[in-house]
Amino acid sequence: MRLVILDNYDLASEWAAKYICNRIIQFKPGRDRFFTLGLPTGSTPLGCYKKLIEYHKNGDLSFKYVKTFNMDEYVGLPRNHPESYHSYMWNNFFKHIDIDPNNAHILDGNATDLQAECDAFEKKIKEAGGIDLFVGGIGPDGHIAFNEPGSSLVSRTRLKTLAMDTILANAKYFDGDLSKVPTMALTVGVGTVMDAREVMILITGAHKAFALYKAIEEGVNHMWTVSAFQQHPRTIFVCDEDATLELRVKTVKYFKGLMHVHNKLVDPLYSMKEGN
């Protein structure tokens, strides 16, 4: 497990975007070899998406041979609703890049048979060869995707009832009206994300600091589902300084020391055109 600490949100977003960009470039995708990327929604990844769009428009990155699988979608919200995750992904990312719409997979929260929709999503991931890199974010209570506290750490894509904390947090997207916030969602499971060959989790802001502490300094616990990724062979937590406020000083110093070693010897991220 790695913890990458950047000074602020913008730098954390840029680091994450460069990491994704380099993973795709190093993979050398083609017509018979697609890179498969898992993607989140919410406010945290927006900066990362903006950077990826910038790299694409600069000619540094193509998504022509990339398949994406999104983490979740609300149940019962029309697909064209401005707060659906379909709308979020197309407005904030997909329509600005060269991805084939047929390769952008998002769960259908209006499917007639929701369990069949979840099973089909798992099948599509398997048929794509699994996820190469799953990018995620977390809630203040440590949930990843909509795997709320108490979720099984081996769960698969399924229907979930949202916790009140999540509903309250999402009310800002629905004019602050709790009655408009969906109470159920389709979500990939913790086990679904754990199956990815690599996982990168974005955590920014002081309001996520306790969740980051629970994710890396305490044990694996289904009440903090993000903690499961301590047991993944290739997990990277990318955070800003504000998100480290609950961590021990020695933990922060340890991972900051490792960053210099990784950046220089193991995983240089600045191999793009700017020549950094």
Description of the structure:
- The chain is an alpha/beta fold and 276 residues long.
- The protein has one domain (2-30, 38-265): Rossmann fold, CATH 3.40.50.
- The chain has helices spanning 9-27, 46-57, 85-92, 114-127, 164-170, 190-194, 209-216, 249-266, and strands at residues 2-6, 35-39, 66-70, 72-74, 104-105, 133-137, 158-161, 184-187, 199-203, 235-240.
- The two termini are 25 Å apart.
- Residues 265-276 have low confidence and may be disordered.
List the helices and strands and how they pair.
Layout: E1 2-6, H1 9-27, E2 35-39, H2 46-57, E3 66-70, E4 72-74, H3 85-92, E5 104-105, H4 114-127, E6 133-137, E7 158-161, H5 164-170, E8 184-187, H6 190-194, E9 199-203, H7 209-216, E10 235-240, H8 249-266
